[in-house]
Design a protein that fits this description.
With about 160 residues, the protein is of the alpha+beta class. Helices cover about 25% and strands about 35% of the residues.
C-alpha cells in the first residue's frame, strides 16, 4: 500500500504538467499579459488602405481569419449599405462561427454568411448573425475615409 502511495505521489506532478497547455504562457500581471498579446497578434494585424488613409486592424485567432488571411492581399470595391457599412463578396466561402453580437461597433470587421466581408464604419444595434473577424485598432476618421458611396480598399497582412 505504501509503495502505491509513493508511486502516485511521485507521478502526480508529471501527470498534472502533461495536462497543461505548455504553449500558452500564463502572465503574472497585466503589463506582461499585454506584451504577450502583442506578440501573438503580430501576424494578425491587417493594413487597410482607403484612399490616402491607412488603418490597422487586429484579427481574432480563429479558422475564419486564417482562411481570410490566405486570400490576402486584396484590392476590392466595397459597396455601401445602410449608411453604416461597406461590404464585398469573397471569391470563396470561409468557415463560419456565427453569433448575434447585439451591438456593432465602429471598426468591427465581420463575415456575413460564409463569403461577405463587412467593414462597419458606424455603430448600431443588430439582430443579424455574423462571424467575428476582428476590429480596426483606431477608427477615428474611418467614416470620412470610406465616404458615402462605394470605395476601393486594399487589405493586406501587416
Amino acid at each position: 500500500m505504501k509503495s502505491t502511495s509513493v508511486v502516485v505521489l511521485f507521478f502526480f506532478p508529471f501527470l498534472m504538467g502533461a495536462a497543461c497547455d505548455q504553449y500558452t504562457p500564463m502572465p503574472t500581471n497585466d503589463k506582461q499579459h499585454a506584451s504577450i498579446e502583442n506578440l501573438n497578434a503580430m501576424n494578425d494585424t491587417l493594413l487597410l488602405k482607403i484612399g490616402d488613409k491607412e488603418f490597422t486592424a487586429t484579427l481574432l485567432h480563429n479558422p475564419t481569419t486564417a482562411a481570410f488571411k490566405a486570400l490576402l492581399p486584396l484590392t476590392v470595391n466595397m459597396v455601401e449599405l445602410n449608411r453604416n457599412e461597406k461590404y464585398f463578396r469573397l471569391s470563396r466561402s470561409l468557415p463560419t462561427n456565427e453569433s448575434t453580437p447585439g451591438t456593432i461597433n465602429t471598426g468591427d470587421l465581420m463575415l456575413y454568411g460564409s463569403n461577405t466581408f463587412v467593414l462597419f464604419y458606424e455603430g448600431f444595434s443588430t439582430s443579424y448573425r455574423y462571424t467575428k473577424l476582428g476590429r480596426i485598432n483606431e477608427s477615428t476618421g474611418l467614416a470620412a475615409a470610406v465616404g458615402k458611396g462605394n470605395v476601393t480598399v486594399t487589405i493586406s497582412v501587416k
